[in-house]
């Protein structure tokens, strides 16, 4: 099973309202597509190219941070998808990043958040309520991302509400 | 559209609520130009429209809608997305706005204002305000653990109002170690501060870098005209927090703050009264020419029970503008208010901008340095060199003459610029 797969790229493309081209794996099992008559290889590169094609401008710092997160996710998510112990550590790292930042790259929603959400979707989906409690910041972030317009166009939102909202957030005053 | 004019003084966190909301909704909200706090809002035309004379105040472009309270103005200039889509959401937004006013604002003001010099410092009050605000922020932190924004998954008026209310606290008192325990609040605050619409109103919000230090000078000088560098030096020197007693109206007159300086006995009471009548001499000095009052001083002066001192400011190289140095002197006089009855001084500034010295001649009851008698008096005297003068010597006579009559020069020959009398 592969987490950073054709399906995720297609979902990101749908979110960005940008055609993804003939996406497939090449002979080295690397995601490949053709955008603007150019070969684009690798999950991170494809997602970033789609973002710039869709016309959402980013600062260089943000582009690099996105690239870093997309590479991180492409590197480890496959193993996380198959190995629950590995998944736990993988999610803990992301949880730590989201403790201090609202979004993966800081204060602004980027394509990295969208792509990461689609990749993590199946991993988080399998977690028990208790396991989710240990990654509350990821849950908070997922809930926010899936509330963004167009994110849940083709996938139902993760049912996170039961846990974070009624159990953990205290009834305020 | 709710286009209109907002009357406010600059950097008013209450006005930010409306200004930020207007950025989100695209409403054309202009800040009234030429607004002078304390004048414009006390003018007849203003009071006719807004009887309370409070700011921020809002007037719609057609003049039909007049609003005062900042939350109401922000609500009016907002759009549906900010106010909430349904009644439940709107009520939650309202809940947070009220919460900000009742739980955050009083504690935040009581904690921050003493450090800004708007209120006198009272350790007990500040500590209580601190614990109140931190417990409110703890609630907020728990709430934001599971949420990105306060009410919905996007910015609402609730976020804008709570953000604006917490602005002072984040800028001035919530030091990094405190913020570390409020990680969700900090995350939310920074995200809001970085929103493009917020940045149009507040281009950069700098967070408090270190624990605030109370500076009694600031309070006495009523912010505004500060004298840069010296402050830190003073603050270090005085770890114990002195409490200036002088009451001054806080510039934000829409805050009801009661200050109650404690009564204490005159520290000079322990000394013999002697024959020198301070009030009498002061009256003579005020009403008569120095040619008369100075001989009168020597005639009445009681060297047994009173002493004459020469004081020289230790850091003349730090004196910049003349008006700042004058504020330094008058500020010291204000803090020494309770000494007035038993002391007299003429303190003079010699020289010009960036090349000046401060020195003066003081007279008070007793033979010891009077300042250690009361904790209120210990703020400034350490920045001066004190020399007791021999009332019998000719040199003293000349010094007294020069200082009382505001003539002569300082030791380096700088010309007399301004004098201040403590009486």
TrEMBL record, chain A:
GO terms for cellular component: protein-containing complex. InterPro entries: Arc1-like_N, EEF1E1, Glutathione-S-Trfase_C-like, Glutathione-S-Trfase_C_sf. Residues 33-172 form the GST C-terminal domain. It comes from the Eukaryota. This is GST C-terminal domain-containing protein.
TrEMBL record, chain B:
PROSITE patterns: EF1G_C (PS50040), GST_CTER (PS50405), GST_NTER (PS50404). Residues 2-85 form the GST N-terminal domain. Residues 264-423 form the EF-1-gamma C-terminal domain. The keyword Protein biosynthesis applies. It holds the Pfam family EF1G. Keywords: Elongation factor, Protein biosynthesis. It comes from the Eukaryota. Residues 86-220 form the GST C-terminal domain. Residues 222-274 are annotated as: Disordered. Transmembrane segments: none annotated. This is Elongation factor 1-gamma. It comes from Loxostege sticticalis (Beet webworm moth).
